Amino acid sequence: MSTDTLTQSARTEIPGFGGQFVAPGDAGYDDARAVYNAMIDRRPGLIARAGDAEDVAKVIGFADRHDLLLAVRGGAHNGAGLGTVDEGVVLDLSALKSIEVDPGGRTVKVGGGCTWGEVDAATGVHGLATPSGIISSTGVGGLTLGGGIGHLTRRCGLTIDNLLEAEVVLASGESVRASATENPDLFWAIRGGGGNFGVVTSFLFRLHEVGTIVGGPTFWAVEDAAEVLRAYRDFLPAAPRELNGFFAFASVPPAPPFPEELHLRKVCGVVWCYTGPTEDAAEAMAPLLEATPEPLLHGVQEMPFPALQGAFDPVYPAGDQWYWRADFVNEIPDAAVDLHAKFGAEMPTWQSTMHLYPIDGAAHDVDATDTAWAYRDANWGSVFAGVDTDPANAEKISRWCVEYFEALHPYSAGGCLREHDDGRGSGAGAGELRPELRPPRPDQGDLRPAELLPGQPEHRPGD
Questions:
Q1: Rounded Cα gap, residues 232 and 250, in angstroms
Q2: Is the pTM here over 0.85, yes or no?
């Protein structure tokens, strides 16, 4: 079907569409089709910006009738660009922006097109938060459906552990509520199983008291990486749950508040978030600082939680070139530490990075069979990311990322973080469901995702 015919058919077959259609040749088409990762350059035949759940159902039905590939987009952060598609239909949820905070009930109801920055801003004024990644421009939908790891994981669990219910439009066009008591099999599946079981138009999350935190980075010379990582792997699992800190290789951003003499210097570091009493933060971090060389910078301070959530946004704006790989990790043996130190010193560009996110503490309180997020025994999630502004460096950053990942993969637990699954042949297990943990066939039919949404690749969510 030509794009002209596709657009005309949509306007004819979807009367009363409350959103907006954007097609090739329309003003704003290039902006509308762009996703966070500029390495992804696809040209949808139609972009349908839904205004509500009824619009969502109509677009799913239209794509199904015409056997068109359908990509569902919330925040457009998916590493492999699964929120877009060539020639098919992009169902854009970005207009679904409602946020309703219930401070007394400690809940927030969030539209499927919201970003975490928008949610953090609404809940933060009440001194409340829910686990929500580390970059505020990330879409709520993609991060949630993939599991959701962030600064609050050790204290509050994964994002899905705080999901109370969701409104989901199925492939049939029916809108249903998924919760522990309504459509429980669907509720099981969307908590870590990806976005292919339906289109989530709203989420209801549990909130926690998170007001002023103590956070920020500690940077050490990259030459000290092996010593620091060995100390970190032994320290963090025994630390209080109020203390989260992910290990990272990075380059110091060339801007305030970082000292000019450190700009662009390769470092290893820990990015801290302490949510206990602020006066106890130094004591909680002290054992690691005492066990490691003198840092180049210990930049922690008191701040509102949303400030930490948005701290990486200036470093990683939309439109850069990205290549991701990811793994779950149970242990970090000395051989793995040495490999990390080698590749960390070889970061090809200043934005390239590696993060080791803790996923112990409260994340381990949930049984592996309780949700579709099966790797509850993992202690870390490792993310390798080659990043640069220049398309000419795409091959260089991709090669470093792949070689780094392949060197460390033998030490992994298998699988990977859905929200960081690049999806371009990573070989990382694609965040798959462990076979022994697939749900039984529910009353409403088999929940195999490839059969539910037209054109969606199995087990790969598009945020």
A1: 16
A2: yes
